[in-house]
Amino acid sequence: THTGSVIASFTGDCAAFSRDSGSDLFLEGCTAEQVSSFQLASSGDVPDLYYSQSEESSNVMHLPLQTLGREAKRARVESIIKSMNGSEANPQEIIPEGTNKNTTLYPYQMEMFKMHQHQNQYQRCKQVQIKNEDTMVKNLYASPKLPQNTCMDIPHGVQQANHSQQNAERIKYMTDILKCELSKALSTSVDTIFKAQTKQERKKPPLYHQYYDSSPSYTQMTPVPLPAFQTEALSLVVRKDKSVPISQYCTGDQELTPTKKSSKSLQKRDFEREQRKITDKSWYVLKERSKEGLTTNHLKKAKLMFFYTRYPSSHVLKMCFSDVQFTRCITSQLIKWFSNFREFFYIQMEKFARHAVLQRVTDAEALTVGRESELFRVLNLHYNKTSDFQVPDRFLEVAEITLREFYVAICLGKDQDPAWKKAIYRVISKLDSDVPTHFILT
DNA sequence: CATGTACCTG
DNA sequence: CAGGTACATG
Fold it and tell me: Taking every annotated instance into account, which residue ranges of this chain make up the domain Prospero (predicted)?
């Protein structure tokens, strides 16, 4: 027998954590060797190796496969994004007049560029009368910079022939403007979300721990006063380029930056990152408010919500995703998402807790989860890949509590009980915060 | 029976 | 992350 089969016999009996504990019988037929080999398998240093992996699949054997898996995953995600955005997912290679060759423009810039192109074109033609004036469009775009109805540059003969072409171009121009305006308006609303969050972070004092009543081996955590406001992490405060108000760098992000890098390449890296964010944002914006089902942006939002609530109620889900038709399928998909989020969260917690045990960490108090910690980095990467969201302090507290719960349980040997996680889940499920109001759609 | 949760798998 | 399974709950 290998550990896989041992674990398999346990599954289903840890299901709902509201169920009473005391299922010693499930250890029947499980030898001490099996239990310990299970523990060894669980405590591997290799990321993503699930603890129920069978013995045959050693950690060493898994490394290359993992790498391949990540690459495949990455490729998959990229292709999905591409398919959602059409050609706009990739920066477009164009050569605008008066600029360097092979300048790479991203969708947002592309729109702007097209707009300028059209504006120039139409200002050159401002003397020619165009028949069948579209009064509605005229009213909508009664901006002084918009094309006038005359164009002296074009000879009379050509004028008639070019008429339909001009109209087509006008329509295209309007479409571009519309796109641009829509994009701007929506990005403003997205910015509002992040700004609102920032304000709330600023207003709210850190939450203190009033919930600890049944901690087995460590005392109530002392609330540590946090700095009033993490100005460094908030680009809203320090940012110079106002065109990218969404970005809020986390301190954890810095960890990813190699220490030895020329300032030039750093600048380039920052520039590229900003570009990526612009792309992300326009894509985020354009796909929002879709009524056809859950989009990638809904997933992104759900992940951010996880920072506040690990066990969202259906009601909360409905409030936050009211822009989609709530069929049974959609509901269960959302629930499934959060289930997957929790799974990842708890797996990480267990992994890091076991690691701490192996490192002979003396007591639970020594285990902390700061923004600079590896655990936070992993979590942030999963739920907030672009690091453009300021993770609430409360989430770090919850992570720390979870980590300590796992650590203590493992130290006390509770993990030999197949239902040992149930108690932890019960504790963590009580630590949900309210989702900030800006997540709720009206 | 419908819903929610955990676990496993691909 | 989604599909499937087992189980609990109302």
Answer: 291-442
How large is the average pLDDT for residues A119-124? 44
Distance CA A296, CA A285 (A): 11
Q: Which of A32-41, A284-293, A369-378 has the highest mean pLDDT?
A: A369-378
- Let me know: does A438 contact A320? Beta carbons within 8 Å: no
Inter-residue contact A343 to A357 (CB < 8 Å) = no
Residue with tokens 């005391």: A22
Q: How confident is the model at residue A442 (pLDDT cuts 50, 70, 90)?
A: confident
Return positions of chain C under 7 A from a protein CB.
Answer: 1-3, 5-9
Q: One-letter amino acid identity for A420?
A: W
In this complex, which residue's CA is closest to the C1' atom of nucleotide B9? Answer: A53
Q: Count CB atoms within 10 A of the CB of residue A379.
A: 24
Cα dihedral A208/A214/A217/A220 (nearest 10) = 20
Task: Output the distance from A353 CA to C7 C1' rounded to whole Å.
Answer: 28
CB-strand contact A22/C, under 7 Å: no
Could you please report the per-residue DSSP string of A184-217?
HHHHHHHHHHHHHHHHHHHHSPPPP----S--SS
Instruction: Tell me the Ramachandran region of residue A230: left when phi exceeds 0, alpha when psi lies from -120 to 50, beta otherwise.
Output: beta
Task: Give the alpha-carbon dihedral of A126, A131, A135, A140, to 10 degrees.
Answer: -30
pLDDT digits (tens, 9 = 90+) for A176-234: 555 545 444 444 444 444 445 544 444 333 333 333 333 333 322 323 222 222 222 22
Which residue, A404, A427, A408, is CA-closest to A349?
A404
pLDDT of residue A172: 61
Contact A307, A392 (CB under 8 A): yes
- In single-letter form, the type of residue at position A375 comes to L
A253 has a pLDDT exceeding 70? no
CA gap A13, A421 in Å, rounded: 11
B5 C1' to A375 CA distance, Å: 25
pLDDT tens profile A2-37? 333 333 333 333 333 333 333 332 223 333 333 333
Q: Tell me which CATH code domain A230-439 carries.
A: 1.10.10.500
Does residue A337 carry a pLDDT above 70?
yes
A158, burial (CB in 10 Å: exposed 0-12, middle 13-18, buried 19+): exposed
Residue A170 has pLDDT above 90, yes or no: no
